[in-house]
Please model this.
Amino acid sequence: QVRLVESGGGLVQAGGSLRLSCAASGLTFSTYAVGWFRQAPGKEREFVSGLNSINGNTYYADSVKGRFTASRDNAKNTVYLQMNGLKPEDTAVYYCAARLWTTRIQITEYDYWGQGTQVTVSS
Model:
């Protein structure tokens, strides 16, 4: 059974940092791309960042470029999202999702999802 578990969310002041983790089990992690998405209240879920499996290429939404950094540790079956310079508009539930090989920005392209972790940025 595939399981993705996010952690690391919390409450932080604007300008602060958080590091989210996504721990995977039940799959051959090294063959899966992992995407980070977020959903703010009343808004649709949106792509934030993605990491390919083999080549490790990373992709970011324009809104987080230069502030967020995604990385993966295949030995630990874990993907991280380092979030710096947080803004109130980054407040959302953050989800990780997995699909084979390469990143996609469309939600429907992912096979597995975590339960989400809340990030709240106060002004």
Summary: The first strand starts at residue 3 and ends at 7.
